[in-house]
Amino acid sequence: MLSFRFPRCATLALAMVSALACDPDAESKPLPHGDRGAAPEVGVPAPRLKRLTAPQYRRIIADVFSPDVLLPATLETDERIEGLFQVGAANTTISSYGVEKYEGAAYDIAEQVLTTAAMRSRWVDCSGETIDEVCATDALDALGQRLWRRPLSDAELATVTDLALLAADTLSDFDSGLEYGIAALLMSPHFLYRVELGDGPEAPAGGYDDWEMASRLSFFLWDSTPDGALLEDAEAGRLTDEATLKAVIDRMLADPRTREGVGALFSEMLHLDELDSLTKDPNVFTYMSDELGPSARTETLSVIERHIFDDDAPYPVLFTTRRTFVDRTLAALYNVPAPTPEGFGALELPIESGRRGLLGHASFLALQAHAASTSVTRRGIFVREVLLCTTIPEPPANVNTSIPEVAEDALTMRERIAVHLEDPTCAGCHRITDPIGLAFENFDGLGQWRDTENGAWIDPAGNLDGTDFVDAWELGGVVAGHPVLTPCLTETLLQYATGASVEELDEALIDWHAEGFSDADHRVLWLLRDVALSPAFRGLGSVE
After folding, report:
1. What is the DSSP letter of 387?
2. What is the pTM of this model?
3. Cα gap 399→402, rounded to integer Å
């Protein structure tokens, strides 16, 4: 059975979103500040340990030490749960293989830090010619606070310092001993896991303490560890007082690192990380190259960044805008002039190109397709699950999911998949996915436009939840005007921020945030701020 997660407030957004869908380049205007009332009394997700994802690990090392630190090509594999690595991180542990990888990385990082003058001087304030206990203590204390995202206790600092001094004495070299201390910090569960349990002695009743809030805010908005300023805010108690918390959040949103953090959010949501391993049959798709996947990811993230930060435009317009950024690789695929000889340049896609919005990007069209063909089911499922928050079950184990071969009376994909819509075992799911996917059949499995398939004209018309469309261009407007689009993003952001499953989120709270998002003209920056202040995010409420 299909499960539709339609928040009750969805209908409140319909009129506004429909209007936006007709105006793809609507001008940004100031956010309204209407009063929707206080947040409802809700249950909050139970606190749990969340391990660092591989991108977070890499970003922390770059932020704390240097982007020049060389890291292993692979770390512990991240797992998506309900479409998000952040939910997976709250529900998975580190394997024995992962422990080995993190151990090797820790010693390698420590060695690089202490043998590179610029990195060493950032954290070690002595020459290292002699074994200096004070220097070792100070270095490990300061570095430990950045890596563990809180001050080390006296016992913790003594343990790691004693280890470094013992190793230094054994090896007769201060820096060699200090490597063991830094590696110990990097191998600790206090680094590899985000310890945000709401049980600190200074935590407000039912909420997270200041140090935990520093961690939650930085990983939500920057996808990295707190910086020195945010840790100072935690020490001063500014993150558990709502008045000062708002000012801190506003400062963080204005920081350039939030652009990277939002990029990480949408990369997870849209599965853009999978573009690194994009593979296609070169005999079928002659435009395929090693550069296409990374280029497609850059296009989509560039459009999202400009839309949210530079234009402060409504979220639904992302599905109707013709503004994009392409390089020569994508320009050739889209059959448009490259705006610049090198790198990426801004471009307004011509109407005759037939593509607009995120669903016209190669990042979606190529990724949600097979190696040698399109996939109406994968493309339809993506729209349903990722953009409209519809849960679609896996097909029965014994069902035949293969597509019939091309035949004289079945030249197009629409004709060939008709069998799925007639088979009662398959029809329940395919009737709500395949008509969406068929809208994109003018784009082949790489995202290049085509009018025909096997010599037959393609019919991309269809219907999405009662609204007709004639092609992918019109479908972009239908998606933008769908009453569930913006509540779905609200739900996704709450999951991303908290690591909670859908079942753990209080529906009344999702509705409350979605209502505010609607009142704020669906500005994503507004929603980020609202979620950062959410009772669910701050742990203020009864634990579910």
Report:
1. I
2. 0.90
3. 9
The Cα-based distances of 287 to 47, 292, 331, 441 in angstroms read 48, 9, 11, 18
Spatial contact of 153 and 143, defined as CB atoms under 8 Å apart: no
Structure tokens, 517: 């998002």
User: Is residue 22 assigned to a domain?
Assistant: no
CA separation for the pair 405, 77 (Å, rounded): 37
Whether 499 maps to a domain, the answer reads no
Residue 4 lies in a domain: no
pLDDT digits (tens, 9 = 90+) for 440-489: 999 999 999 999 988 899 999 999 999 999 999 999 999 999 999 999 99
Taking only the tens place, the pLDDT of each residue in 336-376 is: 999 999 999 999 999 999 999 999 999 999 999 999 999 99
Sign of torsion over alpha carbons 357, 360, 364, 368: positive
Enter the tokens of residue 267: 């990369």
Q: CA–CA separation, 197 vs 384, rounded Å? A: 34
Domain around 155: 50-194
| Cα 84 from Cα 78, distance rounded (Å) | 10
Domains in the chain: how many in total? 1
**Which token pair is 159?**
């343990």
CA distance 180 to 160: 8
Residue 40 lies in a domain: no
Alpha carbons 173 and 175: distance in angstroms, whole number: 6
Indicate the pLDDT class of residue 9, thresholds 50, 70 and 90.
Answer: very low
List Cβ neighbours of 493 (8 Å cut-off, separation of 6 or more): 265, 527, 528, 531
